[in-house]
Amino acid sequence: MKHYFLPVAAMAMCLSAAAQDLPQASPYGEVEQIVGLTKVEVDYSRPSARGRRIFGDLLAYGEPWRLGANSATTIEFDGPVVIEGTKMAAGAYSMFAIPHQESWEIILNKNTKLWGNSRDEKEDALRIKVKAEPSEFTETLTITFDDVKDDKALMSIRWEKTRVSVQLYADATAQGMENIKKAMAGKEIKAGTYASSARFALERGVMTKEALDWAQRAVDMDPRYYWMHTLALAQAANGMKKEAIATAEKSMQVAEKEGDKAYIRKNQDVIAEWSK
Question: What is the pTM of this model?
Fold first, then answer.
């Protein structure tokens, strides 16, 4: 038995060592961002330059690239989005790029189980061109979301001395109003729910009459100065400027007592605008 035990033990040790987690040359990374109300998630492996010239050398211009290393980079949306003006359905896609000196082609493919740079072009769901710009040196491939505002974001891809940015848009109006509808169906609706619903509707320019009712209910339940300000905005949106000015003045008086300079200024601004 001793003649067999030692080799088997040695083999087990080798297998155990092979299964260990070791640092990868291109470590896995992920980045996630909420755009509007839509979650966008990118999963990719992150190669480093390591003193090499990347674009136009290691990665030839005009050749497809998996936008990372190892398995193809994937991007997933949990709601519909608009990418550089093109509508895309919710779902997961593999993401490729074809770098050129002054522009890149960004490709989304329906197959998310790809390895390397090859893909079936018949499964491409999106193919767009974006500008390639010089940037500060970035050692490791980096994907970030920048300028996240008003249902929009820029997905930026940076590596070596190149940066490209892809415009994403996810309109949150429909989903937001659906969320409000569900909240209003509840048995016990709080003042904050009325106030936030009113503010959202006003900002989106929808259901202004309902927004006036919600804002009034919020103030009736709890007359906080920031909810009074929302009520003033709702009154103005419904042509009630005289009432809006009076409500804004009340809001400002309470904001002054609370020392909230931001709301003092907000009320001053709208009063000046409505008084013209």
Answer: 0.80
